[in-house]
Amino acid sequence: MRQARSNGYDALAVHVAGSEKLRPPTPQACAADAEARALRDVMWEEYERQLRDAQTYTIDAVWKWLKDHGGNVGRNTPWRDRQRLLSRERVTELAAAKARAVIELAGAAGETDTLRGG
What we know:
elongated
């Protein structure tokens, strides 16, 4: 789901490539191998789950998880990734709320055809 380059995601991909004995262990090698790519995606999903759950996982806890999974990254990496992820999700939520408001207004105006009512 990442949209921008991130050391955290790259470190997880390199870790998976190394554990799958791909040479050289790079994010590109991981992406080229179907099994490694599937494992990498699972790792990325877990990373994003922890980033989303700010009530349970502190930045230090996410950073430690990254280090435990081969990610030699700075403490700011999970913080930047969390900010980027939460910001992107907030934009999506606002767009959905705006679309719902347009549909409700069209319905309140008596329009049954949403496109015409918009």
